[in-house]
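At this stage, I wrote out one protein, both as residues and as discrete backbone shape codes, and that material follows here.
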Amino acid sequence: MRIVLPLMHRRRHPLVQALSLVLGLVVIGVLMVFGLVVAGVLLVGGALWLAWRQWQQHARVAKPAAPSARDPQILEGEYVVIRQHSRPTAH
């Protein structure tokens, strides 16, 4: 199988060449401006989001903790009792 591409003929008229060049530059400029606007929105939105998270975290930490009547020598935590009998333990 043979692939045949249509020949792209070059426009002969200099005005058409200049207009196509200007049109291409305008399209590239619009795409660049659109990309910069999107990047700016993402940057500002990300900065605001990070500032909000830091403010929320600071507000949580700044609240005084309730005094604890626990013994500092006792460690608290969760544990699982494993019995070594004839039946295997499912975890």
In short: The mean pLDDT is 82.
